[in-house]
Design a protein that fits this description.
52 residues; alpha+beta
Length: 52
């Protein structure tokens, strides 16, 4: 039988460029709220590059 929901096995990252704009998505499965906040803080610290 199908599981009640699907979750990620590991961390994933996707980058897409649309009309010269770059969109970056980062996702990961976390066990609890504390881990979620830690993940968000880590993602917010990732370097961003601006190309003009």
């Amino acid at each position: 039988p199908p599981t009640p929901y699907t979750t990620l096995v590991g961390r994933v990252r996707c980058e897409r460029e649309i009309k010269r704009s770059k969109f970056i998505a980062v996702a990961a499965s976390v066990p609890d709220e504390r881990a979620a906040m830690s993940f968000l803080n880590e993602v917010l610290l990732l370097p961003t590059r601006f190309v003009f």
